[in-house]
Amino acid sequence: MLEALKQEVLEANLMLPKYGLVVFTWGNVSGIDREKGLIVIKPSGVEYDQMKASDMVVVDLNGKVVEGDLNPSSDTPTHIVLYKEFSDIKGIVHTHSPWATSFAQAGVSIPAAGTTHGDYFYGNIPVTSRMTKEEIATDYEKQTGDVIVRTFRKENINPNDVPAVLVNDHAPFTWGTDPKNAVHNSVVLEEVAKMTYHSLQLNPHNIEMSQDLLDKHFKRKHGANAYYGQKTK
Amino acid sequence: MLEALKQEVLEANLMLPKYGLVVFTWGNVSGIDREKGLIVIKPSGVEYDQMKASDMVVVDLNGKVVEGDLNPSSDTPTHIVLYKEFSDIKGIVHTHSPWATSFAQAGVSIPAAGTTHGDYFYGNIPVTSRMTKEEIATDYEKQTGDVIVRTFRKENINPNDVPAVLVNDHAPFTWGTDPKNAVHNSVVLEEVAKMTYHSLQLNPHNIEMSQDLLDKHFKRKHGANAYYGQKTK
Amino acid sequence: MLEALKQEVLEANLMLPKYGLVVFTWGNVSGIDREKGLIVIKPSGVEYDQMKASDMVVVDLNGKVVEGDLNPSSDTPTHIVLYKEFSDIKGIVHTHSPWATSFAQAGVSIPAAGTTHGDYFYGNIPVTSRMTKEEIATDYEKQTGDVIVRTFRKENINPNDVPAVLVNDHAPFTWGTDPKNAVHNSVVLEEVAKMTYHSLQLNPHNIEMSQDLLDKHFKRKHGANAYYGQKTK
Amino acid sequence: MLEALKQEVLEANLMLPKYGLVVFTWGNVSGIDREKGLIVIKPSGVEYDQMKASDMVVVDLNGKVVEGDLNPSSDTPTHIVLYKEFSDIKGIVHTHSPWATSFAQAGVSIPAAGTTHGDYFYGNIPVTSRMTKEEIATDYEKQTGDVIVRTFRKENINPNDVPAVLVNDHAPFTWGTDPKNAVHNSVVLEEVAKMTYHSLQLNPHNIEMSQDLLDKHFKRKHGANAYYGQKTK
Prior knowledge:
- The structure is a homotetramer of 233-residue chains.
- The first copy, chain A, has 233 residues and is α+β, with helices and mostly antiparallel strands.
- Chain A has a single domain (3-221), classed as L-fuculose-1-phosphate Aldolase (3-Layer(aba) Sandwich), CATH 3.40.225.
- Chain A has helices spanning 3-18, 76-85, 98-106, 115-118, 133-137, 140-154, 179-202, 211-221; strands at 27-33, 38-41, 57-60, 65-67, 91-95, 164-166, 172-176.
- In chain A, strands 4-3-2-1-5-7-6 form a seven-stranded antiparallel sheet, sandwiched between helices.
- The mean pLDDT of chain A is 95.
- Chains in contact: A-B, A-C, B-D, C-D.
- At the A-C interface, α7 and α8 of A face α3, α5 and α7 of C.
- Chains A, B, C, D: Residues 7-197 form the Class II aldolase/adducin N-terminal domain.
- Chains A, B, C, D: Its EC number is 5.1.3.4.
């Protein structure tokens, strides 16, 4: 069942240690088959170097395990909310990658300070509000998804244009057009967080790039008029 | 004598360079056989790449060498105090890992700033008071253990819930349910120290997570109602 | 056509991941044949581990592709401006290397704070002014070259003496006497940016070295009286 | 001639890239045969991965090349001053290792902030005064040695107790009982600089350890009453 997607999700999970985004088992990647409405996700608390494609767990959009011998990631309810609400995305990553997590712990969003950011994220990477006692008490992992979605709605951000978020006091989630693209965005997020941390120490004021430059770089790589890479030849 | 524990302690010691926690010989791991009341510990000043299980030194709870040709770690009296006073622990690690040591040198405790911390440490990681002239003068390494224990009593911290401490002007100790678990906690401590250092530079105020979120994350992984990983299936 | 230069440009491009200057495809190196007036440059958006010498693209100084099946780097117009205006240089590198980019994002030039800097760069490494709406709107990549050239003219800097620049809100460019020398300067720039960032945190005032020391170190390695290395024996 | 010392100096030089202390050729190690009054030193500007023992250059204490086809390191006159003035040392290292160089560029000495420091350096690691126009103009490399020696005399520091110095606006020198011991001290200096940099950011005040703790740790490893390691058994 969904063997190709399982393999893809396995490989995307193995990219996390390769790119230095995780310590131990602190991260998970999922992918979705939109037609079947089924999610493939990493099992909870399993070491990366022992995982096989057949360990991947299949769950439906109600969180019911459809196939698999292992518990799915404890963050599965967060993934489900995001797949339901962000209807174009087909892969999700959660890590505690250190630079992005440093911003999340500080409750500080990542300003769009340069073209590296603008090539991938069309605006600041938002941090959610802190979760309330009530949100923590019941269905915590689902509520984590809800607070992400509320942040994007309130700040009027298109999740396809800014495929990353910082959950306050916690860590980042990223997403993308498939599981590996979501990991790619995680790598970029970490690099951008690292550079912008240092830019903020050098110059705490006036760090954001102009809207013109942001438009230029994002649209150079995305949308109908993109001309970066080999695609448009 | 205690061959399995020696092998376990050797392997735990070899994890220190693997995870980048030590330079040269700056670190040691021990384990205890609670029934026999015997500790197995790394010899003093020996290179990691030359150590064998048979080099591990067996000492009793009075610090007497029971077996072994080499001097035990000079920090052995500190380990002994901790094993005596923290009755559930079965492994101890001492390193000068750079991020945790930066906090220790600064005399600053590590606030519980996010869920990475809360998954492992149920509250701030305390820093001891500075050692006095008298404590340094006599039985210094034993007194190092005493100042750790006094810190946990004074701040009313359960060492099973916060398996790490920063010795002021010195470096961290961690412990755990066995030697490798203690090393695991050392790796997490270093990662948490790194991230929280950067969070504090981004936002020096109001960095601590809520007690509700701390409860949620710690208890998600520890105690009767834990549901993280594969254990509860 | 230009097979030797293609090989040289390929090897110079492969130095970028080797020295940790790039993530994914974020960087490009070119070289020029001054007699023929032809530039060899990396293709746009191609992975380093898949590139062959035959993938390198040959363009003329009007930006016309003379040979090659792939699109040249989208930064090609910037390279062309620099080759035209800085008449001695024969290799150019663009990366988003993290330390130099942190200064570029902050809009802060890198002061000549020590002899490591003075051995390679005869004065501060300048940051350009921010690009205007008009510069971004039309021929953006060419205008990026123009703003670099204007910066060197306005600050009266000889590009042979300071073979690096920070484009504001963007990232560095470096150049040199050939493609590998330009990469060498990129590596030095990154190391200098890292060290001077930390020096500025330790001591934000009075960080610049004396003109005498700068003269001494730069001229120890460059020009008629150089005596560093084996060349003068 | 001095074949064993050449091999030792070669191996010590190769430790520099191994421990991440150098980029390109930015570093050199020498050793001395005190009886013969001859120094063996790295040639100037030669790549580490191509160096052979036979490339090492033999110079006398007047700086005259006694054996060797290559130019000796341009820093040779600095080494000579240190060997003449610090009569117990038998190995010297110069690098631009990034953390120590960050302090040197900032003109800030490294305070003895913790036991890692105290295990190796009996007090703060001094920074020299800035070199004057006159010192730079004539015999610059010899004058660099002189300014180091003056710093130790003026601050009344025993070079055997503090085997490291930061040359202002430049970078560190370390020394030791033989070439590899000098490299060992370079590695420790870099680790201590890194940690104390971060401690100073966390707590800029009152960072120095007590004299009692410094005495305890330094003397635990050095002198007649040392008890660290296996030597005293």
